[in-house]
Amino acid sequence: MVTRGFVGKKPGGGPKDPTERIPPGQHLVNDFPVLTAGPTPRIATVDWAFTLKVGPQPVKKWTWQEFNALPMTKVVRDIHCVTTWSKLDTQWEGVMVDDILADAGIEPPTDFVLAHSFDGYSTNVPVADMVGGKAMVALKFGGQPLATDHGGPARLLVPHLYFWKSAKWVNGLQFTQKDEPGFWELRGYHIYGDPWLEQRYTSD
After folding, report:
1. pTM to 2 decimal places
2. Which segments within 19-110 are labelled E, that is strand?
């Protein structure tokens, strides 16, 4: 199943020249570089939980088993890192943010979200970039459980923004009243991060 609005250009489709799919200032890679802001946390699935909050108030919390019982979606998307690499046709499987909200029985109450991770990392994303089939909490990459170095057991996937917005080791989403900067945004990265506009840093 491929959810509405979340279909990337698949192999054999779209432009014949892959360079047309690479934003300005980016270069194509075939591997999957590993970049982290700090030590890699090791999270056993028995200890994993995901919490949805409105401000400081928890709305719903899922265990690993409960989260895996939610509808699963497979997608193929190009991804773009702020460090200038791009990787095409990456394959992911996980739970769409739309399905998380549906299971919690809520509509987005604000216009902004902070994604939180087990290592204390956070990043801000507008709600408009999280719903309508645009984002998921990914559990698998390339048909296999998501590797720890790439954010496993679960990471946020917001592929149309620079990849620092796709928070590794994600453990919750928090609706906020304003666009609150996260870890890298507080350290000079762009508040939004559109690869096609080269929004890498605050001044871009």
Report:
1. 0.89
2. 27-28, 49-54, 57-63, 73-80, 85-96
